[in-house]
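Inverse folding, one chain.
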């Protein structure tokens, strides 16, 4: 919308695609979506587009079921994750509340479904640092505690964070072993976000991890955590001969 506003006349889809760094197909799809939302955009594929003056996006509208889904999700994040993410979700709900039609705002106070707090104490390590490393594709330097302390300090490429009711895991590519690992955050003594970024694309690494054949894994640590089993059965995690579960 902002790009269309900058142009006084008709602008071609090719120009929009070049300015936004996306494909022409994406431009056509997004313009059609905006038009369906009520935006006054004239033009069509092959001709060009123009945004008529005074065009504004309509206010957010949700059904009561959609609002309840948002409230339940916000409660879960607020009570099961770290302080930073908990604050972020409260801010997000406040922003949604500010743009909802007045008659729908009371639905945000829905208390018909209760999301309990995690029975296990939150890990002492800051999950916010791990999430930042994931977003920025930065390497992590990790050290282990307890029975895994002998593993020493290692450098890993974090690719996914797994949050469960009783435990939290991080999936990563280990530079030392050149293989994927699923690591229990409870077993970590320290985590440091390094300035160095890993060169491989995180999403591509996740795809490669998912593509590995699902089969029992020989774990160096030999842990039998039911959450690990759930993680390895889920569509977002795979246990295999090239994945160590720690």
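Residues assigned per position:
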């Amino acid at each position: 919308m902002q790009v269309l506003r900058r142009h006084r006349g008709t602008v071609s889809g090719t120009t929009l695609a070049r300015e936004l760094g996306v494909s022409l197909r994406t431009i056509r799809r997004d313009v059609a979506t905006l038009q369906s939302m009520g935006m006054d955009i004239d033009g069509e594929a092959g001709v060009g587009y123009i945004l008529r003056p005074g065009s504004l996006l309509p206010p957010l509208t949700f059904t009561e079921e959609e609002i309840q889904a948002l409230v339940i999700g916000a409660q879960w994040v607020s009570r099961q994750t770290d302080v930073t993410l908990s604050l972020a979700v409260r801010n997000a709900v406040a922003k949604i509340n500010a743009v909802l039609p007045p008659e729908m705002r009371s639905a945000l106070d829905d208390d018909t479904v209760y999301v309990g707090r995690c029975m296990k104490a939150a890990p002492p390590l800051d999950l916010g640092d791990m999430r930042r490393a994931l977003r920025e594709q930065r390497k992590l330097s990790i050290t282990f505690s307890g029975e895994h302390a002998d593993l020493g300090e290692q450098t890993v490429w974090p690719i996914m964070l797994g949050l469960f009711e009783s435990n939290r895991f991080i999936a990563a590519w280990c530079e030392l072993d050149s293989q994927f690992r699923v690591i229990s955050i409870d077993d970590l003594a320290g985590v440091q976000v390094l300035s160095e970024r890993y060169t491989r694309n995180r999403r591509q690494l996740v795809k490669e991890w998912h593509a590995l054949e699902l089969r029992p894994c020989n774990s160096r640590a030999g842990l039998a955590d039911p959450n690990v089993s759930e993680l390895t059965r889920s569509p977002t995690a795979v246990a295999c001969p090239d994945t160590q579960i720690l």
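Residues 213-245 have pLDDT under 50 and may be disordered. The radius of gyration is 23 Å.
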